[in-house]
# Entry
Amino acid sequence: MTFLQFEHVTRRFENGQEGLSDVSLAIDQGTMTFLTGHSGAGKSTLLKLLIGLESPTSGRVIVDGCDLKQLSAKQMPWYRRQIGIVLQDHNLLPDRTVFENVALPLRLSPMSAKDMRRRVRGALATVDLSDKGGLLPRHLSTGEQQRVGIARAVVTRPRIILADEPTGNLDPFLSRQVMALFHQFRDLGSTVLVASHDIDLIKDQGCRILHLSQGALVQDTARVDGGDVE
Amino acid sequence: MTAPDRKVAASTVSLAAKPKGGAVLAWLADHRRVASDTATFVSQRILRSFLVWLMVGIALTLPGLLWIAQSNLQAFGGQWQGSAGLTVYMNVGARDSQVRDLALKLQEHSAVQRFVLTTPEEALDQLLTQSDDSQFLRGALAAIETNPLPASFSVVLEVDTSYLQLDALSRQLLALPGVDDVEIQSAWIERLRDLGDLANRVGGGLSVILLVAAVLVTFASVRLAIESKLAELRVLALVGATASQMRRPFLYFGASYGIGGGIMAILLIALFLNQIEAPLKSLLISYQVGVSLAGFTPSFLLAVVLAGWFLGIFGALLALSQRLGDLGNQTS
# Structure
């Protein structure tokens, strides 16, 4: 069942450059897909369009049958609560403990303190950081910080997980651990889209790969014709 | 690593639907949390917060003092309204019939509210009573054998009597037989009122400037708070905080600065009144006016705090409109 869909999406910036050029794609629910390409290929633009941080210049971005352009500014936050976002630089708050960082998205929703603690502990256990909840991010290694970012992204049990270069700062071992986590969330029903330029890592994952170049979708491994996109 | 302990939200949930249950409880819980965070934020920066309270307090003090001054002047004016009027002095040795005629004339005049006749004997008694050395005075008066004091009328006029009517009446009375002099008592009150009006206008202008300054102080402080929390705001925007959830902490900051400033203003006003009360009372007693300072009432205190709260919120809203508008479109 198609869950994420781009219909002839073009995103042109104010300087005239195109972040995305006439991209069409469809991603099924509960799948894990990789987005590859060099810097400036359009990976981040595509993710921003999905998050609703940018709007397409033309075309439609459709999530679960809903054109994101139809969402009002007031509806957008409620949509974003269904997305777990993992960024390369983690965006952890340095003056908050690991526990507080992970609990941040839960503070936006009606939830008892007991439930919140249970959910945060669960998320921290998932990323193997149960014993680090009381520490500040600066006391963690880069890999641990990235896992805190993942715990924060999944603590709300999102339907979509979007990750932008989540292994950019990690060694190969930790990178594989992070990928294993994404597989687990995919198995539980989340639709996972990971942007990465680490071809060696993602070609071993057995997932669909979308290759972007200069804003255009040039290769899709899910295509029966071998993947090249005209 | 352990397996995730969760299930993905049901796909039947509409893409951007608000959760239906517990909205009020969540709203209350968010307010409680934000209030607690604000208390922590302010207490962690207590010196800076104190300076903001002091600046807002100083800005609120002048309008507060003006209000108190105005309400006291009204009370003061009210007292003088009763005693404002005329004093009519008869000639020494004026005949009783002349005094009676004048009393009748005053009784019939529509502008006269009441009057009191002081006979020469009563005037002499009052003089002797008020004199520090009445024995000496009594001796001196005995030497001249006759009472040198005239009969007089203290005339209190109706409240709405204008100065022109007062002047006309004084001329009429002065023309009557046996009347030596008529003193108008309200001329200096008129001048005092004029000065009061001028002070009110100047003070009103200054108050507006100071209230704008209070808003700007809150604006700058909340702006700094926003800058210090930009990283958190960006994360909150990414994870789906609504505009009101992002604004709320800063409205609380603005309110806390405003309310703190209001309390500071009350302390400053109290200190000021405490300093001037004794000399002011002494001055008023010398004018035989028994006015105690009015206006520093619970409702006044509440009004000052509410004014501070309003200015704080207003300043915060200005800062938010300038800085938070585009946060929803930023990632990092």
Summary: The two ends of chain A are 24 Å apart (CA to CA). DSSP finds seven helices and ten strands in chain A. Residues 17 and 203 of chain A are 30 Å apart (CA to CA). The mean pLDDT of chain A is 88.
